[in-house]
Every structure is written in C-alpha cells, then in structure tokens.
Write a structure and sequence with these properties.
Strand order of the largest sheet: 2-1-3-5-4
Number of helices: 5
Number of domains: 1
Structural class: alpha/beta
CATH class: Alpha Beta
Shape: globular
C-alpha cells in the first residue's frame, strides 16, 4: 500500500460514493479477506457495502444500480506484493493476467459495469496462504484491520446516496 493508494481509496469511498464489495471464499485461508472486511462493515453501512462471498456475479443487480458511482472490489490477489500488502488498481489490471480464484468473474463484472459507465476498482490484498480450512494469516488479518479502519472513516465521511 502506498499513501496514494490509501488516499485514492478514501476519495473513491468518501467523495465519489463508491459501493464496496468484498469477495472471498470463507474456507480458503487468506482468500476470505475481502469477505471478512465486508462482513465487518456491512452491518453498519448496509447501503454501501456488500459481502459477495465467492460469487460476486450473483450481485450484478445491486452493482448495476449504483448509477455511475464507482464500485470497489476487495479481494485476495496473488502478485500484489508481500503477504498483507495491498494495492488499488483499475479493473483493467485484471486484463491479460492468469485466472485465479475470482478473476474471471470480476473481469466479466467489470466489463458489464463499464458498459453502464460504472467505474470499477480492485483492492488486491496479497495472500500468504490459500489452504483449505485455514484462518487468515497474521499479515493478512492485520491488513484487513487496517482496511476496515480506513474504509470505516471514509464511509462515515461519505455523502448519503439513495
């Protein structure tokens, strides 16, 4: 994570009213991180955060309803750096990369949202382990806590979108 990534993420959520979507498989170690973050936020901000679990494509309806506001996906992303580090990238970062757990469905969703003039971003959190049945590893859990704090502050500042 760079300060510019944190600043841009804050601006997307606080200033531009982004919808935050957590993606992850709850039974595959660090792959659960996006869902874990969304789960921490969704009860307090139900109109701004969705926990899509391992099937983000099932949430196309609510995603398409944001009417031009950005959508920010949170997901484990191999190649994002050291375990627990994270980066913010436009959805075009998914193009041309090898498929992983959710990339194909996120690429498809990003394309469908782009057709509706909805900008799409990805917060990729580098996993340490995707072992079935494993909990989040320490560096990824720490990153999740940091992102929950950052996103909570941004969501509190955000204007209400109806």
């Amino acid at each position: 994570m760079t300060h510019s990534d944190a600043d841009r993420l804050t601006a997307l959520v606080a200033d531009e009213g982004a919808l935050v979507v957590g993606v992850g498989h709850p039974l595959c170690g660090d792959d659960a991180v996006g869902s874990v973050i969304a789960g921490c936020l969704a009860a307090r901000f139900p109109d701004r955060v969705i926990d899509a679990g391992s099937v983000p494509e099932n949430f196309f309806g609510p995603l398409a309803a944001v009417e031009g506001r950005p959508v920010v996906f949170l997901d484990a992303a191999a190649g994002a750096g050291e375990p627990g580090s994270w980066c913010l990238a436009g959805a075009d970062a998914l193009v041309g990369r090898a498929p992983d757990t959710h990339r194909a469905s996120l690429r498809l969703l990003a394309g469908l949202l782009a057709e509706r003039a909805i900008p799409t971003w990805i917060v990729g959190i580098a996993p340490a382990s995707l072992a079935p049945g494993a909990p989040l590893t320490f560096p990824v859990a720490r990153a999740a806590d940091d992102l929950v704090a950052l996103l909570t502050a941004a969501l509190v500042e955000a204007p209400v979108h109806v």
